[in-house]
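Sample intake sheet
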Amino acid sequence: RATKPIPQAGIPFLAHELDTMMRSVQRILAIFESFTTDRTSLTLQEISDRIDLPKSTAFRIVHSLEKAGYLIRLEDQQYCLSLRFLRLAGLVKSTLGIREISRPIMARIAEEVSETVSIHTIIGKNRVCVDAVSAASSLRSVIQPGEQVPLVAGSATKVLLAYMPKKDLTPLLSALARARKLTQAEVVRELEEVRQAGFSVSHGERLLGVTAISAPIFDVNDEVKYCMSIGGPTVRMQSNEKRFTKELLEGTAEISRHFGGSVGATL
């Protein structure tokens, strides 16, 4: 019996075939992500509405996912994710951390913007640099992994504090207000503005002549324990601020997705 020849490796798909494949993948992922902690089960119509697809198209995909064991149809005709996801989650490398996830993205951004890109977190009352990728330029912001600075000024500090749980932030407000020569209410208002914007920009707050842009990285619990920054001489950063901010927000969104978190702000 004649069989259909198998395409040889290395022969590229036609453009429309690749587009069709990518569209199918995106639709499947959109269905998975339409479930939330608030809505762990959804009707077919709700799934269709959430991913903005005709009900007939949504049904075909949902039916295929049900047959494959990724969705379960309940007695009330709603659908929910199956326990198969728990098995897949168990395969995630337990040691996969922020440096492994973020390093390729940091390197790409550093090359694109020709400035220093770094990851920060809070340990005690200090902001600590977790990792950094330096730009090729001779005039650059130099920061080393492990470097610690007080939680007083700078865009990274503001971002980390802005997303800090209130119970952890409150004990720090008095010292922050004194150091910044502001009232506690003014500090809280400033941090709220950072949360609303989804990023922070500082010009010479910590080091004269240095500008930094920072944005949060969300984890699987939608908490912010890390942020990413682009830093460099103010003379270069200011003229490219909008473009650099866009690059940063795209980078932190990508890292957040790999971390299982939500996507941050957009520009």
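Comment: The two ends are 58 Å apart (CA to CA). The longest strand covers residues 224-233.
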